[in-house]
Amino acid sequence: MDINLIYASTSGNVEIVMESIAKVLSTKGFRTFLFRAERTPIEAVKNNDNFIFGTSTWQHGQLNPFFLKLYEQLNLLDCHHKKAAFAGLGDRRYEPVLFCEGIEKIRKLWLKKGGKEIGSVLRIEGEPYNQLDSIVLDWVNKIAEKMKG
């Protein structure tokens, strides 16, 4: 099964998480494809069915600017028969109520457009490096099982 991981990363934290997710999924027999959101044509979403979206949250609960163009294009799609999981990074020190709101915006749009959500949202607090072999790994294992089922 192919899974397309589409993400926006500025400091590299989201990219590290998505690469880690792709690596684990590959060991479980999935074919993974990583796409930076700002370089992803909407055809990558139109022509595929399984996704993991990842982004950080900017300013006051805003979407990472690198995801904006694709987000606007997603709003024009019918996502029925497509599945996605969601991974967000954030920092509660800034605005606890808007923690990981960037990925929430993508998730809500996906559901509004008819897409199916797989599993719970992965929410990573702060730097991800010490969470790759624990929180991220546990989440990926659960997502892999749900994607297969």
UniProtKB/TrEMBL annotation:
InterPro entries: Flavodoxin (IPR050619), Flavodoxin/NO_synth (IPR008254), Flavoprotein-like_sf (IPR029039). Keywords: Electron transport, Flavoprotein, FMN, Transport. Its cofactor is FMN. GO terms for molecular function: FMN binding. The keyword Flavoprotein applies. Belongs to the flavodoxin family. This is Flavodoxin-like domain-containing protein. The lineage of its organism: Bacteria, Candidatus Curtissiibacteriota.
